[in-house]
Amino acid sequence: MTSLPTSTEKKLGLVIDLDTCVGCQACVTNCKEWNTGGQMAPLTDINPYGDGADGVWFNRVHTYEHACESGSRTVHFPRSCLHCEQPACVTVCPTGASYKRTSDGIVLVDEDKCIGCKLCSWACPYGAREFDTDVGVMKKCTLCIDRIYNDNLPEADRVPACVAACPTGARHFGDLGDSNSAVSQLVRERGGVDLMPELGYAPTNKYLPPRTRSDRTVEIDAPALESVSVEGGFLGWVDRVLSR
Amino acid sequence: MHPAFSVIFFTTATGAGYGLLALLGVFAAFGLVPPDRWFGFVSLGLSLGLITAGLLSSTLHLGRPERAWRAFSQWRSSWLSREGVASVATYIPAVVFAFGWVLLGQFNGGILAAGLLAAVGAVITVVCTGMIYASLKPIGQWASAFTLPAYLIYALMTGSVLLAAIFRLWGISGRPIEIVALAAIVLGWAWKIATWRSNDTSVSTTTANSATGLAGGTVRSMEWPHTEENYVLKEMGYRIGRKHATKVRLFVHVFAFAIPFAATALAVAIDGPIATFAALIAVASQVPGMLAERWLFFAEAKHTVTLYYGR
Fold first, then answer.
1. CATH number for the domain harbouring residue A61
2. Could you say which of A28, A118, A124 has the minimum Cβ distance to residue B138?
3. Domain that holds residue A41
4. Is B216 exposed, middle or buried (0-12, 13-18, 19+ CB in 10 A)?
5. Do A125 and B219 touch (CB under 8 A)?
6. pTM to 2 decimal places
7. Residues 6+ apart with CB under 8 A from B311
8. ipTM of the modeled complex
9. pLDDT tens digit string along A75-92?
10. Which of A117, A132, A164, B99 is most buried, judging by how many CB atoms fall within 10 Å of its CB?
11. CB-CB: which of A56, A57, A63 is closest to B223?
12. Alpha carbon of B229: minimum distance to chain A alpha carbons (Å)
Protein backbone atom coordinates (compact mmCIF):
# COMPACT_ATOMS: atom_id res chain seq x y z
CA MET A 1 0.00 0.00 0.00
CA THR A 2 1.15 3.51 -0.70
CA SER A 3 -0.48 4.73 2.49
CA LEU A 4 2.29 5.65 4.90
CA PRO A 5 3.11 3.77 8.11
CA THR A 6 2.08 5.84 11.16
CA SER A 7 5.50 5.19 12.67
CA THR A 8 8.59 3.20 11.81
CA GLU A 9 10.69 1.06 14.17
CA LYS A 10 13.88 2.75 13.01
CA LYS A 11 14.60 5.85 10.95
CA LEU A 12 17.68 4.85 9.02
CA GLY A 13 19.27 7.70 7.15
CA LEU A 14 22.33 9.75 6.39
CA VAL A 15 23.90 12.78 8.02
CA ILE A 16 25.93 14.78 5.53
CA ASP A 17 28.57 17.22 6.71
CA LEU A 18 28.76 20.21 4.36
CA ASP A 19 31.78 21.46 6.31
CA THR A 20 34.03 18.57 5.39
CA CYS A 21 32.69 17.52 1.99
CA VAL A 22 35.34 18.32 -0.61
CA GLY A 23 33.26 17.51 -3.68
CA CYS A 24 35.51 14.66 -4.82
CA GLN A 25 32.57 12.64 -6.27
CA ALA A 26 33.84 9.42 -4.65
CA CYS A 27 30.39 8.80 -3.08
CA VAL A 28 28.75 9.36 -6.48
CA THR A 29 31.08 6.90 -8.16
CA ASN A 30 30.85 4.20 -5.52
CA CYS A 31 27.05 4.54 -5.41
CA LYS A 32 26.86 4.01 -9.16
CA GLU A 33 29.33 1.12 -9.04
CA TRP A 34 27.50 -0.72 -6.26
CA ASN A 35 23.94 -0.03 -7.32
CA THR A 36 24.37 -0.87 -10.99
CA GLY A 37 24.70 -4.42 -9.70
CA GLY A 38 22.41 -4.05 -6.67
CA GLN A 39 18.72 -4.03 -5.78
CA MET A 40 17.69 -1.49 -8.46
CA ALA A 41 20.16 -2.72 -11.10
CA PRO A 42 21.04 -1.74 -13.70
CA LEU A 43 21.61 2.01 -13.42
CA THR A 44 21.30 2.41 -17.14
CA ASP A 45 23.62 4.70 -19.06
CA ILE A 46 22.37 6.10 -22.35
CA ASN A 47 25.04 7.08 -24.87
CA PRO A 48 27.71 7.32 -22.15
CA TYR A 49 30.63 8.19 -24.44
CA GLY A 50 28.93 10.59 -26.87
CA ASP A 51 26.94 13.81 -27.02
CA GLY A 52 23.90 13.93 -24.77
CA ALA A 53 25.23 11.37 -22.31
CA ASP A 54 22.50 10.47 -19.83
CA GLY A 55 21.87 7.88 -17.20
CA VAL A 56 20.48 6.98 -13.81
CA TRP A 57 22.36 8.11 -10.69
CA PHE A 58 21.12 8.07 -7.10
CA ASN A 59 23.56 10.63 -5.78
CA ARG A 60 24.64 13.92 -7.35
CA VAL A 61 27.10 16.43 -5.91
CA HIS A 62 26.48 20.12 -6.63
CA THR A 63 28.86 22.97 -5.88
CA TYR A 64 27.65 26.34 -4.61
CA GLU A 65 29.08 29.67 -3.63
CA HIS A 66 27.50 30.71 -0.34
CA ALA A 67 28.00 34.46 0.10
CA CYS A 68 26.99 35.92 3.45
CA GLU A 69 28.13 38.68 5.83
CA SER A 70 31.16 36.76 7.04
CA GLY A 71 32.38 36.34 3.44
CA SER A 72 32.01 33.78 0.67
CA ARG A 73 32.77 30.11 0.73
CA THR A 74 32.53 27.17 -1.60
CA VAL A 75 30.11 24.47 -0.46
CA HIS A 76 29.94 21.02 -2.01
CA PHE A 77 26.48 19.59 -1.68
CA PRO A 78 25.62 15.90 -2.17
CA ARG A 79 21.96 15.40 -3.14
CA SER A 80 20.18 12.05 -2.85
CA CYS A 81 16.96 10.56 -1.47
CA LEU A 82 16.26 11.85 2.05
CA HIS A 83 13.94 8.92 2.98
CA CYS A 84 11.33 11.41 4.23
CA GLU A 85 8.85 10.66 6.99
CA GLN A 86 6.10 12.21 4.83
CA PRO A 87 7.17 11.10 1.34
CA ALA A 88 4.59 12.35 -1.17
CA CYS A 89 6.44 10.27 -3.78
CA VAL A 90 4.93 7.23 -2.05
CA THR A 91 1.38 8.47 -1.53
CA VAL A 92 0.96 9.69 -5.14
CA CYS A 93 1.98 6.27 -6.53
CA PRO A 94 -1.12 4.72 -8.15
CA THR A 95 0.16 1.15 -8.23
CA GLY A 96 1.70 0.47 -4.82
CA ALA A 97 5.17 0.20 -6.37
CA SER A 98 6.48 2.93 -4.07
CA TYR A 99 6.46 2.19 -0.38
CA LYS A 100 8.01 3.20 2.92
CA ARG A 101 9.18 0.32 5.09
CA THR A 102 7.72 0.05 8.60
CA SER A 103 10.88 -1.65 9.90
CA ASP A 104 13.48 0.99 9.05
CA GLY A 105 11.73 3.83 7.21
CA ILE A 106 13.56 3.27 3.94
CA VAL A 107 11.62 4.41 0.84
CA LEU A 108 11.79 1.89 -1.99
CA VAL A 109 10.35 1.15 -5.44
CA ASP A 110 9.13 -2.31 -6.40
CA GLU A 111 10.29 -2.39 -10.01
CA ASP A 112 7.87 -5.20 -10.89
CA LYS A 113 4.85 -3.03 -10.03
CA CYS A 114 6.04 0.34 -11.38
CA ILE A 115 4.18 1.50 -14.50
CA GLY A 116 6.57 4.38 -15.18
CA CYS A 117 4.00 7.20 -14.84
CA LYS A 118 6.73 9.46 -13.34
CA LEU A 119 4.30 11.16 -10.95
CA CYS A 120 6.51 10.26 -7.96
CA SER A 121 9.42 12.18 -9.49
CA TRP A 122 7.14 15.22 -9.79
CA ALA A 123 6.09 14.85 -6.16
CA CYS A 124 9.69 14.81 -4.88
CA PRO A 125 10.92 18.38 -4.18
CA TYR A 126 14.53 17.17 -4.05
CA GLY A 127 14.80 15.52 -7.49
CA ALA A 128 15.86 12.25 -5.88
CA ARG A 129 14.10 9.89 -8.27
CA GLU A 130 15.40 9.22 -11.75
CA PHE A 131 13.49 7.45 -14.51
CA ASP A 132 15.19 4.62 -16.38
CA THR A 133 14.09 5.15 -19.99
CA ASP A 134 15.60 1.81 -20.97
CA VAL A 135 13.59 -0.35 -18.57
CA GLY A 136 10.60 2.05 -18.29
CA VAL A 137 10.49 2.20 -14.49
CA MET A 138 11.46 4.70 -11.80
CA LYS A 139 14.62 4.16 -9.80
CA LYS A 140 15.90 5.63 -6.58
CA CYS A 141 18.36 5.34 -3.71
CA THR A 142 17.79 2.20 -1.58
CA LEU A 143 20.08 3.33 1.24
CA CYS A 144 21.99 0.23 0.05
CA ILE A 145 19.64 -2.27 1.72
CA ASP A 146 21.74 -4.89 -0.03
CA ARG A 147 24.82 -3.73 1.92
CA ILE A 148 23.52 -2.66 5.32
CA TYR A 149 21.81 -6.02 6.00
CA ASN A 150 24.33 -8.12 4.06
CA ASP A 151 25.75 -10.90 6.25
CA ASN A 152 28.31 -11.73 3.58
CA LEU A 153 30.08 -8.41 4.14
CA PRO A 154 32.39 -7.70 7.08
CA GLU A 155 30.40 -5.77 9.70
CA ALA A 156 32.43 -2.59 9.14
CA ASP A 157 31.33 -2.58 5.48
CA ARG A 158 27.60 -2.79 6.24
CA VAL A 159 27.05 0.88 5.45
CA PRO A 160 25.76 2.50 2.26
CA ALA A 161 28.30 2.60 -0.58
CA CYS A 162 28.47 6.41 -0.47
CA VAL A 163 29.37 6.35 3.23
CA ALA A 164 31.99 3.64 2.71
CA ALA A 165 33.65 5.67 -0.05
CA CYS A 166 33.82 9.11 1.57
CA PRO A 167 37.52 9.93 2.16
CA THR A 168 36.83 12.86 4.49
CA GLY A 169 34.21 11.25 6.71
CA ALA A 170 31.56 13.71 5.57
CA ARG A 171 28.85 11.05 5.36
CA HIS A 172 27.42 9.29 8.41
CA PHE A 173 24.89 6.46 8.49
CA GLY A 174 22.67 5.45 11.38
CA ASP A 175 19.30 5.42 13.11
CA LEU A 176 17.97 8.98 13.37
CA GLY A 177 14.95 7.68 15.30
CA ASP A 178 17.22 6.75 18.23
CA SER A 179 18.13 9.96 20.04
CA ASN A 180 21.22 8.31 21.56
CA SER A 181 22.69 7.11 18.27
CA ALA A 182 25.95 8.63 17.05
CA VAL A 183 24.19 10.32 14.12
CA SER A 184 21.49 11.85 16.35
CA GLN A 185 24.18 13.22 18.67
CA LEU A 186 26.07 14.63 15.73
CA VAL A 187 22.92 16.37 14.49
CA ARG A 188 22.38 17.88 17.95
CA GLU A 189 25.98 19.04 18.37
CA ARG A 190 26.32 20.56 14.93
CA GLY A 191 22.80 21.93 14.47
CA GLY A 192 21.83 19.61 11.62
CA VAL A 193 19.02 20.89 9.38
CA ASP A 194 16.23 19.58 7.15
CA LEU A 195 16.14 20.59 3.49
CA MET A 196 13.03 22.60 2.49
CA PRO A 197 11.37 22.06 5.90
CA GLU A 198 8.55 24.42 4.82
CA LEU A 199 7.19 21.78 2.41
CA GLY A 200 6.48 19.38 5.28
CA TYR A 201 8.14 16.24 3.89
CA ALA A 202 10.08 15.80 7.19
CA PRO A 203 13.26 14.38 5.66
CA THR A 204 15.11 11.73 7.68
CA ASN A 205 18.52 12.70 6.27
CA LYS A 206 20.07 15.75 7.89
CA TYR A 207 22.68 18.21 6.65
CA LEU A 208 25.32 19.72 8.92
CA PRO A 209 25.92 23.36 7.91
CA PRO A 210 29.53 24.53 7.46
CA ARG A 211 31.13 25.58 10.77
CA THR A 212 31.40 29.33 11.37
CA ARG A 213 34.66 30.77 10.23
CA SER A 214 37.25 31.41 12.94
CA ASP A 215 38.73 34.94 13.38
CA ARG A 216 41.77 33.72 15.24
CA THR A 217 45.10 34.05 13.37
CA VAL A 218 47.69 31.33 13.20
CA GLU A 219 50.01 31.33 16.22
CA ILE A 220 53.74 30.74 15.62
CA ASP A 221 55.87 29.85 18.59
CA ALA A 222 59.29 30.13 16.89
CA PRO A 223 61.14 33.43 17.58
CA ALA A 224 61.64 35.87 14.73
CA LEU A 225 65.04 35.72 12.98
CA GLU A 226 67.71 37.97 14.49
CA SER A 227 69.37 40.64 12.40
CA VAL A 228 72.91 39.90 11.26
CA SER A 229 75.47 41.43 13.57
CA VAL A 230 77.75 43.82 11.66
CA GLU A 231 80.35 44.34 14.36
CA GLY A 232 83.73 42.68 14.76
CA GLY A 233 85.27 39.41 13.83
CA PHE A 234 85.74 37.73 10.48
CA LEU A 235 82.03 37.76 9.59
CA GLY A 236 81.87 41.49 10.46
CA TRP A 237 84.74 42.11 8.05
CA VAL A 238 82.95 40.00 5.32
CA ASP A 239 79.78 41.98 5.92
CA ARG A 240 81.57 45.31 5.57
CA VAL A 241 83.31 44.14 2.38
CA LEU A 242 80.13 42.84 0.80
CA SER A 243 78.09 45.90 1.87
CA ARG A 244 80.41 48.33 0.10
CA MET B 1 7.66 21.22 -16.09
CA HIS B 2 8.11 19.49 -19.42
CA PRO B 3 4.95 20.03 -21.49
CA ALA B 4 4.44 16.47 -22.81
CA PHE B 5 1.82 16.38 -25.56
CA SER B 6 0.29 13.14 -24.29
CA VAL B 7 -0.60 14.77 -20.96
CA ILE B 8 -1.74 18.06 -22.55
CA PHE B 9 -4.01 16.13 -24.92
CA PHE B 10 -5.21 13.85 -22.11
CA THR B 11 -6.26 16.65 -19.76
CA THR B 12 -7.91 18.82 -22.44
CA ALA B 13 -9.69 15.95 -24.24
CA THR B 14 -11.03 14.25 -21.11
CA GLY B 15 -11.94 17.66 -19.68
CA ALA B 16 -14.10 18.46 -22.71
CA GLY B 17 -15.49 14.91 -22.84
CA TYR B 18 -16.49 14.83 -19.17
CA GLY B 19 -17.87 18.37 -19.39
CA LEU B 20 -20.03 17.32 -22.34
CA LEU B 21 -21.12 14.11 -20.59
CA ALA B 22 -22.10 15.98 -17.41
CA LEU B 23 -24.09 18.58 -19.38
CA LEU B 24 -25.90 15.88 -21.39
CA GLY B 25 -26.85 14.03 -18.21
CA VAL B 26 -28.16 17.16 -16.52
CA PHE B 27 -29.89 18.60 -19.61
CA ALA B 28 -31.56 15.25 -20.32
CA ALA B 29 -32.92 15.14 -16.77
CA PHE B 30 -34.47 18.57 -17.30
CA GLY B 31 -35.84 17.61 -20.71
CA LEU B 32 -33.64 20.11 -22.51
CA VAL B 33 -32.19 17.74 -25.12
CA PRO B 34 -34.04 16.33 -28.12
CA PRO B 35 -34.78 12.60 -27.65
CA ASP B 36 -33.54 12.08 -31.23
CA ARG B 37 -31.38 8.91 -31.30
CA TRP B 38 -28.88 10.41 -33.72
CA PHE B 39 -28.45 13.45 -31.47
CA GLY B 40 -27.67 11.05 -28.66
CA PHE B 41 -25.36 9.02 -30.85
CA VAL B 42 -23.32 12.02 -32.00
CA SER B 43 -23.19 13.91 -28.68
CA LEU B 44 -22.53 10.91 -26.43
CA GLY B 45 -20.25 9.40 -29.08
CA LEU B 46 -18.17 12.59 -29.15
CA SER B 47 -18.10 12.75 -25.36
CA LEU B 48 -17.09 9.12 -24.80
CA GLY B 49 -14.73 9.30 -27.80
CA LEU B 50 -12.86 12.27 -26.30
CA ILE B 51 -12.73 10.58 -22.88
CA THR B 52 -11.51 7.27 -24.29
CA ALA B 53 -8.93 8.88 -26.59
CA GLY B 54 -7.63 10.96 -23.70
CA LEU B 55 -7.39 8.01 -21.33
CA LEU B 56 -5.62 5.91 -23.97
CA SER B 57 -3.21 8.75 -24.65
CA SER B 58 -2.40 8.92 -20.93
CA THR B 59 -1.54 5.21 -20.84
CA LEU B 60 0.68 5.46 -23.92
CA HIS B 61 3.14 7.76 -22.14
CA LEU B 62 3.72 5.18 -19.39
CA GLY B 63 7.05 3.40 -19.20
CA ARG B 64 5.25 0.05 -18.79
CA PRO B 65 1.71 0.48 -20.23
CA GLU B 66 1.01 -3.27 -19.97
CA ARG B 67 0.89 -2.84 -16.19
CA ALA B 68 -1.58 0.07 -16.28
CA TRP B 69 -4.26 -2.07 -14.56
CA ARG B 70 -2.23 -1.83 -11.35
CA ALA B 71 -3.06 1.88 -11.18
CA PHE B 72 -6.58 1.08 -9.88
CA SER B 73 -5.24 -0.31 -6.61
CA GLN B 74 -4.03 2.66 -4.54
CA TRP B 75 -7.15 4.86 -4.41
CA ARG B 76 -6.75 5.24 -0.64
CA SER B 77 -3.77 7.58 -1.05
CA SER B 78 -3.24 8.47 -4.70
CA TRP B 79 -5.29 10.97 -6.71
CA LEU B 80 -3.99 9.39 -9.91
CA SER B 81 -5.37 6.03 -8.81
CA ARG B 82 -8.66 7.67 -7.77
CA GLU B 83 -8.86 9.25 -11.21
CA GLY B 84 -8.40 5.82 -12.81
CA VAL B 85 -11.12 4.25 -10.65
CA ALA B 86 -13.51 7.20 -11.16
CA SER B 87 -12.99 7.24 -14.93
CA VAL B 88 -13.76 3.53 -15.30
CA ALA B 89 -16.70 3.71 -12.87
CA THR B 90 -18.18 6.61 -14.87
CA TYR B 91 -18.32 4.42 -17.98
CA ILE B 92 -20.98 2.22 -16.37
CA PRO B 93 -23.80 4.81 -16.03
CA ALA B 94 -22.58 6.52 -19.20
CA VAL B 95 -22.98 3.32 -21.22
CA VAL B 96 -26.45 2.65 -19.69
CA PHE B 97 -27.43 6.25 -20.53
CA ALA B 98 -26.14 5.84 -24.10
CA PHE B 99 -27.85 2.44 -24.45
CA GLY B 100 -31.22 3.85 -23.43
CA TRP B 101 -30.99 7.02 -25.49
CA VAL B 102 -29.36 5.70 -28.67
CA LEU B 103 -30.58 2.09 -28.91
CA LEU B 104 -33.95 2.28 -27.13
CA GLY B 105 -34.59 5.87 -28.15
CA GLN B 106 -36.30 6.73 -24.92
CA PHE B 107 -35.79 8.48 -21.65
CA ASN B 108 -37.45 6.55 -18.86
CA GLY B 109 -36.66 7.23 -15.23
CA GLY B 110 -33.83 4.69 -15.06
CA ILE B 111 -32.10 6.04 -18.14
CA LEU B 112 -32.31 9.63 -16.87
CA ALA B 113 -31.00 8.52 -13.49
CA ALA B 114 -28.08 6.85 -15.27
CA GLY B 115 -27.46 10.14 -17.09
CA LEU B 116 -27.36 12.02 -13.79
CA LEU B 117 -25.06 9.38 -12.29
CA ALA B 118 -22.77 9.74 -15.30
CA ALA B 119 -22.74 13.51 -14.69
CA VAL B 120 -21.75 12.95 -11.05
CA GLY B 121 -19.03 10.52 -12.14
CA ALA B 122 -17.74 13.02 -14.70
CA VAL B 123 -17.45 15.76 -12.06
CA ILE B 124 -15.67 13.39 -9.64
CA THR B 125 -13.22 12.31 -12.33
CA VAL B 126 -12.36 15.90 -13.23
CA VAL B 127 -11.90 16.71 -9.53
CA CYS B 128 -9.42 13.81 -9.32
CA THR B 129 -7.53 15.10 -12.37
CA GLY B 130 -7.34 18.57 -10.86
CA MET B 131 -6.21 17.22 -7.50
CA ILE B 132 -3.34 15.26 -9.08
CA TYR B 133 -1.80 18.65 -9.90
CA ALA B 134 -3.14 20.66 -6.97
CA SER B 135 -1.61 18.19 -4.49
CA LEU B 136 1.96 18.52 -5.80
CA LYS B 137 3.64 20.83 -3.28
CA PRO B 138 6.99 21.12 -5.11
CA ILE B 139 5.24 23.02 -7.93
CA GLY B 140 3.95 26.33 -6.55
CA GLN B 141 1.84 27.27 -9.59
CA TRP B 142 -0.07 23.98 -9.30
CA ALA B 143 -0.36 23.67 -5.54
CA SER B 144 -2.53 26.79 -5.47
CA ALA B 145 -6.22 27.33 -4.82
CA PHE B 146 -6.67 28.15 -8.52
CA THR B 147 -5.87 24.70 -9.91
CA LEU B 148 -8.86 22.53 -8.94
CA PRO B 149 -11.58 25.07 -9.88
CA ALA B 150 -9.73 25.68 -13.17
CA TYR B 151 -10.08 22.03 -14.21
CA LEU B 152 -13.80 22.08 -13.39
CA ILE B 153 -14.42 25.43 -15.09
CA TYR B 154 -12.57 24.45 -18.28
CA ALA B 155 -14.36 21.09 -18.44
CA LEU B 156 -17.70 22.95 -18.21
CA MET B 157 -16.56 25.61 -20.70
CA THR B 158 -15.24 23.29 -23.42
CA GLY B 159 -18.11 20.81 -22.92
CA SER B 160 -20.76 23.53 -23.23
CA VAL B 161 -19.18 25.04 -26.35
CA LEU B 162 -19.18 21.56 -27.94
CA LEU B 163 -22.80 20.90 -26.94
CA ALA B 164 -23.90 24.32 -28.24
CA ALA B 165 -22.36 23.47 -31.63
CA ILE B 166 -24.14 20.08 -31.73
CA PHE B 167 -27.48 21.80 -30.99
CA ARG B 168 -26.88 24.19 -33.89
CA LEU B 169 -25.89 21.34 -36.23
CA TRP B 170 -29.30 19.79 -35.47
CA GLY B 171 -30.88 23.08 -36.42
CA ILE B 172 -32.17 23.53 -32.89
CA SER B 173 -31.84 26.86 -31.17
CA GLY B 174 -29.85 25.95 -28.07
CA ARG B 175 -30.32 29.14 -26.08
CA PRO B 176 -29.98 27.53 -22.60
CA ILE B 177 -26.71 25.77 -23.46
CA GLU B 178 -25.40 28.88 -25.22
CA ILE B 179 -26.09 30.97 -22.12
CA VAL B 180 -24.25 28.34 -20.05
CA ALA B 181 -21.36 28.44 -22.55
CA LEU B 182 -21.18 32.26 -22.48
CA ALA B 183 -21.15 32.32 -18.67
CA ALA B 184 -18.50 29.58 -18.54
CA ILE B 185 -16.27 31.40 -21.04
CA VAL B 186 -16.47 34.64 -19.03
CA LEU B 187 -15.79 32.75 -15.80
CA GLY B 188 -12.91 30.81 -17.38
CA TRP B 189 -11.38 33.94 -18.84
CA ALA B 190 -11.53 35.80 -15.52
CA TRP B 191 -10.17 32.74 -13.72
CA LYS B 192 -7.21 32.52 -16.12
CA ILE B 193 -6.38 36.21 -15.75
CA ALA B 194 -6.56 35.94 -11.95
CA THR B 195 -4.41 32.78 -12.00
CA TRP B 196 -1.70 34.38 -14.12
CA ARG B 197 -1.73 37.51 -11.99
CA SER B 198 -1.37 35.42 -8.85
CA ASN B 199 1.43 33.30 -10.34
CA ASP B 200 3.31 36.39 -11.53
CA THR B 201 3.19 38.16 -8.19
CA SER B 202 3.49 35.33 -5.66
CA VAL B 203 6.92 34.70 -4.17
CA SER B 204 7.86 31.16 -3.18
CA THR B 205 8.95 30.55 0.41
CA THR B 206 11.23 27.82 -0.90
CA THR B 207 14.58 29.26 -1.94
CA ALA B 208 18.06 28.05 -2.79
CA ASN B 209 18.83 28.72 0.89
CA SER B 210 16.16 26.40 2.25
CA ALA B 211 16.90 23.85 -0.49
CA THR B 212 20.54 23.56 0.55
CA GLY B 213 20.15 24.28 4.26
CA LEU B 214 22.62 27.18 3.94
CA ALA B 215 21.05 29.97 5.95
CA GLY B 216 21.45 33.65 5.12
CA GLY B 217 23.13 35.43 2.23
CA THR B 218 22.97 34.13 -1.32
CA VAL B 219 23.51 30.64 -2.67
CA ARG B 220 24.81 30.62 -6.24
CA SER B 221 25.18 27.44 -8.28
CA MET B 222 28.82 27.15 -9.39
CA GLU B 223 29.00 23.65 -10.77
CA TRP B 224 26.40 21.10 -11.76
CA PRO B 225 26.92 17.43 -10.95
CA HIS B 226 26.73 16.63 -14.66
CA THR B 227 27.62 18.32 -17.94
CA GLU B 228 24.56 17.20 -19.93
CA GLU B 229 20.86 17.48 -19.15
CA ASN B 230 19.70 14.54 -17.03
CA TYR B 231 16.22 13.12 -16.42
CA VAL B 232 15.50 15.61 -13.66
CA LEU B 233 16.28 18.62 -15.85
CA LYS B 234 14.55 17.22 -18.94
CA GLU B 235 11.37 16.40 -17.01
CA MET B 236 11.24 19.19 -14.42
CA GLY B 237 13.69 21.84 -15.58
CA TYR B 238 11.71 23.05 -18.60
CA ARG B 239 11.97 26.80 -19.05
CA ILE B 240 10.03 29.13 -21.28
CA GLY B 241 11.26 32.62 -22.08
CA ARG B 242 9.14 35.46 -20.72
CA LYS B 243 8.90 36.85 -24.26
CA HIS B 244 7.37 33.62 -25.58
CA ALA B 245 5.12 33.20 -22.56
CA THR B 246 3.63 36.65 -23.26
CA LYS B 247 2.89 35.66 -26.87
CA VAL B 248 1.36 32.31 -25.94
CA ARG B 249 -0.77 34.02 -23.28
CA LEU B 250 -2.04 36.45 -25.91
CA PHE B 251 -2.86 33.47 -28.15
CA VAL B 252 -4.83 31.90 -25.26
CA HIS B 253 -6.71 35.17 -24.62
CA VAL B 254 -7.77 35.34 -28.26
CA PHE B 255 -8.40 31.69 -29.20
CA ALA B 256 -9.56 30.10 -25.94
CA PHE B 257 -11.73 32.99 -24.78
CA ALA B 258 -12.25 36.05 -27.02
CA ILE B 259 -13.21 34.33 -30.29
CA PRO B 260 -15.40 31.63 -28.64
CA PHE B 261 -17.13 34.36 -26.60
CA ALA B 262 -17.83 36.56 -29.64
CA ALA B 263 -18.96 33.62 -31.78
CA THR B 264 -21.26 32.22 -29.08
CA ALA B 265 -22.72 35.66 -28.41
CA LEU B 266 -23.39 36.00 -32.14
CA ALA B 267 -25.14 32.62 -32.19
CA VAL B 268 -27.35 33.68 -29.27
CA ALA B 269 -28.27 36.89 -31.06
CA ILE B 270 -29.21 35.34 -34.39
CA ASP B 271 -30.60 32.07 -35.72
CA GLY B 272 -30.08 30.13 -38.91
CA PRO B 273 -26.99 28.96 -40.77
CA ILE B 274 -24.83 31.86 -39.58
CA ALA B 275 -25.49 30.86 -35.98
CA THR B 276 -24.44 27.27 -36.82
CA PHE B 277 -21.29 28.58 -38.47
CA ALA B 278 -20.52 30.79 -35.45
CA ALA B 279 -20.96 27.86 -33.04
CA LEU B 280 -18.51 25.79 -35.12
CA ILE B 281 -16.04 28.69 -35.15
CA ALA B 282 -16.22 28.76 -31.35
CA VAL B 283 -15.24 25.06 -31.23
CA ALA B 284 -12.52 25.40 -33.88
CA SER B 285 -10.99 28.33 -32.02
CA GLN B 286 -11.15 26.77 -28.59
CA VAL B 287 -9.30 23.60 -29.57
CA PRO B 288 -5.92 25.28 -30.25
CA GLY B 289 -6.70 27.89 -27.57
CA MET B 290 -7.13 25.31 -24.80
CA LEU B 291 -4.19 23.21 -26.00
CA ALA B 292 -2.06 26.38 -25.69
CA GLU B 293 -3.55 27.10 -22.25
CA ARG B 294 -2.63 23.60 -21.05
CA TRP B 295 0.82 23.85 -22.66
CA LEU B 296 1.44 27.01 -20.62
CA PHE B 297 0.08 25.29 -17.48
CA PHE B 298 3.01 22.87 -17.76
CA ALA B 299 5.67 25.09 -19.34
CA GLU B 300 5.28 27.91 -16.80
CA ALA B 301 5.21 25.59 -13.77
CA LYS B 302 8.43 25.72 -11.79
CA HIS B 303 9.56 22.70 -9.77
CA THR B 304 11.63 23.20 -6.62
CA VAL B 305 14.38 20.90 -7.92
CA THR B 306 15.37 23.65 -10.36
CA LEU B 307 16.65 25.61 -7.34
CA TYR B 308 19.50 23.09 -7.03
CA TYR B 309 20.55 24.00 -10.55
CA GLY B 310 20.43 27.75 -10.03
CA ARG B 311 17.41 28.11 -12.33
1. 3.30.70.20
2. A124
3. 12-208
4. exposed
5. no
6. 0.91
7. B237, B239
8. 0.94
9. 999 999 999 999 999 999
10. A117
11. A63
12. 7
